[in-house]
C-alpha cells in the first residue's frame, strides 16, 4: 500500500496535475459560493471537459471541485445568511450572526481551517478504509454484484426528500432509462423506436448535464434570481487566537470523525453529516444555549463534517463502485467516460489512478486552505456575480459539453429533454439523486441479475445461498425499511 | 386533493402499462437455458412502477387541499421561452453555425430575459463566450462545432 501511495504521490506532484487540483479547488469554491449551484451541478458541467483529459488529472480536478464546493457553501452562509450548498445550512445558524456582529472575517477564517482539516481527516480515513473494503469486494460474483446494486438502489429512502413514493418512482424511471438500447444478452433493440442513435442506450453525460445543470438554468429563469449583496466583512483578525484554536480543535476532530463516518454510508451525505455534527457539538457544549447566537464551534463542527464527508463518500465509490449521492454518481459517470470499470477491480486494474485520487484529496484540502484563506475577500465577491449573465453562460457551457463528447446534436437534444425533466421533477418535488443512482446502477443490476440466473439455470436460490449476497440483500431491505419507520415516527 | 400528484401518478401508471405491453413484442428466443429474455427486466420494472404510481394517485386524492398559491405566470413564461429558444437554437444551429448563433440567439436573449440591460456587459459576455468556445473548445479540445454561414 505504501508503495502505491508513493506512486500516487509521484503522479500528484506533476506540475500539470497540481494545476488541475488548483483549478478544481478554485472552480469548486466558486460553485459552492453561488447559491443554487451545488457540487453535483459543477461536476456535471465539468464532466464532458474531463473527457479530453487523461484520467489522473481529470479525477484530481473532479475530487478537488467536489471538496471545495462543500467549503464554498459556507462563504455564502456566513456572508449572506443563505447556504451556498445544502451542507452549509447549519453554518448559517452561527456564521451569519457572527457576520452581523462584525466578525465575518473571523467566521470565514474558522470555516476555512475547519473545512481543510476536515478534508484532510476525511482523506486519511478514505486511505485507511478503501483498501480492505475493495480487497473484500474482489470475492464478488454476479449474485453479489446484483445484491450490491440492489443495496445501492435501496438507499432511495435516504435520498427521498419529502416523499418516498416519489423517490421510488424516480428510481424506477431511472431504471427504465437504462433499458433503452440494444440488450447485451440477446442483441434486441429495446425501446429505441427505430432511432439508430438510441441503439447504444441513452448516453450518461447528456443525461447528467440535463438533470443537474440545464435544469438549474430553467430554475433560475423561473425565479429570475437577483444578484445578491453580501454583508460587510468587518475588521479584526481572520484567524482565531491560539486559545480559541485549542477550543476549536476538539470540535473539528469530532466533526471530522462524524463527517467521515456518515459520508461512508451511501445516501447519507454531507448535509446529514453537518447537521448531526452541529447537533452533537451543541449537545457536548457547556453552553448549548449560546448556539445560534454566533459561536465559533457552530461553524467549525458542521464545516469540518461536510468536508470530511467527501473522503467518506469516496470509500464506497472507489471500493465498490457504488455511488452514495448525486455527486459521486456523476464521478462514476466520469470513470465510465474514461473507459474505466467502476468497482473493486478498479484498485487492481488502475492502482496508480486510485492512489493518485487518494493522495490528491489530501493535496486538495491543503490547496483549499491556501486559496481559501488568501482570497477570502475575492471569494466573498463571487456572491455578487451577475446571475443574469451566469445563467446563459452555464447553458452555453452545457450545450458545448453535451455536443462535444460525440460531436452530435442528438446529445444536445437529450440534454435539453433531461433538463426539462429535471426542472419538472424538482418543481413537483421528485428528487433527482435517486434517478441518477438508478441510471448508474441499473446496468449493474440487470446484467448481474440475468448473469446469475444464467449460471444457476434460472434458479433464484443463487441469491440466497451465497452468504455475501444474502447479507447484502438483508442490508438492502434494512436500509430501505429503517428510514421509512423513522419517517413515520417522526411524522407521528 | 393534490391535482399535480394525481396527474403525475396517472402518467407514470400509463407509462408502466405501455412498457409492460411493449415487452410482449420482444422476441422470445432463448440464448442459453436459464438466461432471462430481453423482456424480463423491463417487465419487472414496469410491474414495480405500477405500485408507487397507484400510491401517488391515492395519496394525492387523500391530501387535504392547501390554500391556493397564486401561480407566478411570469416565471412560467420565462421558462417556456427559454425552452422554446433552446429548441429553435438546436434546429437552426446545423444550418447557421455554432459561433454565430450561440452568443446572439441564446446567450444574449437569455441574459435579457434574466433582466440584464447593460449593453456593455452583454458585449463583454458575447466576446468572452466566443473567445472561450473558439480557443478552449474548438482549438484546444478539437470539438468540431457545426460551422455553416460563418465559423
Q: How would you portray this structure in words?
A:
The complex is a heterodimer of chains A (492) and B (151). In chain A, helix 5 packs antiparallel against helix 6, helix 8 crosses helix 19 and helix 9 packs antiparallel against helix 17. Chain A has one domain. The mean pLDDT of chain A is 86. Helices cover 74% and strands 1% of the residues of chain A. A two-stranded antiparallel sheet of chain A has the order 1-2. By secondary structure, chain A is mainly alpha-helical. Chain B is mainly alpha-helical. Chain B folds into 2 domains: 60 residues; 68 residues, no CATH class. Chain B is 70% helix and 0% strand. In chain B, helix 1 packs antiparallel against helix 2 and helix 3 packs antiparallel against helix 4. The longest helix of chain B has 24 residues. At the A-B interface, helix 8, helix 9, helix 17, helix 18 and helix 19 of A face helix 1, helix 2, helix 3, helix 4 and helix 5 of B.
Amino acid at each position: 500500500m505504501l508503495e502505491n501511495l508513493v506512486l500516487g504521490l509521484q503522479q500528484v506532484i506533476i506540475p500539470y496535475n497540481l494545476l488541475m487540483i488548483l483549478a478544481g479547488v478554485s472552480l469548486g469554491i466558486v460553485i459552492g459560493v453561488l447559491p443554487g449551484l451545488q457540487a453535483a451541478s459543477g461536476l456535471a458541467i465539468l464532466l464532458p471537459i474531463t473527457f479530453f483529459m487523461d484520467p489522473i488529472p481529470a479525477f484530481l480536478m473532479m475530487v478537488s471541485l467536489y471538496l471545495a464546493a462543500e467549503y464554498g457553501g459556507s462563504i455564502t452562509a456566513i456572508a449572506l445568511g443563505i447556504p451556498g450548498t445544502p451542507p452549509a445550512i447549519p453554518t448559517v445558524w452561527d456564521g451569519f450572526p457572527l457576520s452581523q456582529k462584525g466578525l465575518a472575517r473571523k467566521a470565514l477564517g474558522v470555516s476555512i481551517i475547519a473545512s481543510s482539516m476536515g478534508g484532510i481527516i476525511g482523506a486519511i480515513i478514505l486511505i485507511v478504509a478503501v483498501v480492505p473494503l475493495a480487497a473484500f469486494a474482489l470475492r464478488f460474483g454476479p449474485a453479489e454484484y446484483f445484491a450490491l446494486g440492489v443495496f445501492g438502489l435501496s438507499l432511495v429512502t435516504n435520498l427521498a426528500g419529502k416523499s418516498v413514493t416519489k423517490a421510488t418512482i424516480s428510481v424506477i424511471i431511472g431504471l427504465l432509462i437504462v433499458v433503452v438500447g440494444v440488450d447485451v444478452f440477446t442483441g434486441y433493440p429495446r425501446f429505441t423506436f427505430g432511432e439508430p442513435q438510441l441503439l447504444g442506450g441513452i448516453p450518461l453525460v447528456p443525461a447528467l448535464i440535463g438533470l443537474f445543470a440545464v435544469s438549474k438554468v430553467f430554475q433560475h429563469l423561473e425565479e429570475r434570481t437577483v444578484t445578491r449583496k453580501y454583508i460587510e466583512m468587518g475588521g479584526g483578525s481572520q484567524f482565531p487566537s491560539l486559545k480559541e484554536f485549542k477550543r476549536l480543535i476538539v470540535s473539528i476532530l469530532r466533526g471530522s470523525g462524524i463527517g467521515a463516518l456518515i459520508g461512508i454510508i451511501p445516501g447519507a451525505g454531507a448535509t446529514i453529516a453537518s447537521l448531526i455534527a452541529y447537533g452533537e457539538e451543541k449537545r457536548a457544549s457547556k453552553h448549548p444555549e449560546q448556539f445560534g447566537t454566533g459561536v465559533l464551534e457552530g461553524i467549525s463542527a458542521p464545516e469540518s463534517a461536510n468536508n470530511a464527508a467527501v473522503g467518506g463518500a469516496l470509500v464506497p465509490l472507489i471500493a465498490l463502485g457504488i455511488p452514495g449521492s448525486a455527486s459521486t454518481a456523476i464521478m462514476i459517470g466520469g470513470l465510465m467516460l474514461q473507459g474505466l470499470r467502476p468497482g473493486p477491480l478498479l484498485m487492481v486494474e488502475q492502482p496508480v489512478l486510485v492512489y493518485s485520487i487518494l493522495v490528491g484529496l489530501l493535496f486538495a484540502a491543503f490547496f483549499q486552505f491556501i486559496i481559501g484563506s488568501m482570497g477570502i475577500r475575492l471569494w466573498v465577491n463571487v456572491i455578487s456575480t451577475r446571475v443574469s449573465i451566469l445563467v446563459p453562460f452555464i447553458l452555453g457551457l452545457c450545450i458545448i459539453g453535451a455536443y462535444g463528447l460525440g460531436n452530435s446534436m442528438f446529445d444536445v437534444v437529450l440534454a435539453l429533454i433531461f433538463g426539462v425533466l429535471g426542472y419538472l421533477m424538482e418543481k413537483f418535488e421528485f428528487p433527482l439523486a435517486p434517478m441518477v443512482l438508478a441510471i448508474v446502477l441499473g446496468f449493474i443490476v440487470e446484467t448481474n441479475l440475468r448473469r446469475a440466473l444464467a449460471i444457476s439455470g434460472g434458479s433464484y436460490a443463487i441469491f440466497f445461498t451465497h452468504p455475501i449476497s444474502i447479507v447484502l440483500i438483508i442490508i438492502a431491505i434494512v436500509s430501505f425499511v429503517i428510514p421509512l419507520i423513522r419517517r413515520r415516527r417522526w411524522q407521528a | 386533493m393534490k391535482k399535480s400528484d394525481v396527474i403525475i401518478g396517472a402518467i407514470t401508471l400509463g407509462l408502466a402499462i405501455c412498457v409492460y405491453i411493449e415487452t410482449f413484442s420482444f422476441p422470445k428466443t432463448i440464448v442459453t437455458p436459464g438466461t432471462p429474455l430481453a423482456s424480463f427486466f423491463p417487465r419487472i420494472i414496469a410491474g414495480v412502477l405500477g405500485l408507487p404510481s397507484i400510491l401517488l394517485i391515492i395519496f394525492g386524492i387523500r391530501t387535504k387541499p392547501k390554500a391556493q398559491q397564486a401561480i407566478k405566470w411570469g416565471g412560467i413564461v420565462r421558462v417556456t421561452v427559454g425552452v422554446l429558444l433552446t429548441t429553435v437554437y438546436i434546429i437552426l444551429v446545423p444550418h447557421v453555425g455554432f459561433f454565430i448563433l450561440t452568443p446572439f440567439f441564446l446567450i444574449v436573449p437569455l441574459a435579457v430575459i434574466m433582466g440584464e440591460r447593460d449593453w456593455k456587459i452583454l458585449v463583454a459576455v458575447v466576446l468572452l463566450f466566443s473567445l472561450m468556445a473558439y480557443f478552449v473548445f474548438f482549438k484546444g479540445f478539437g470539438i468540431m462545432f457545426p460551422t455553416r454561414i460563418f465559423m
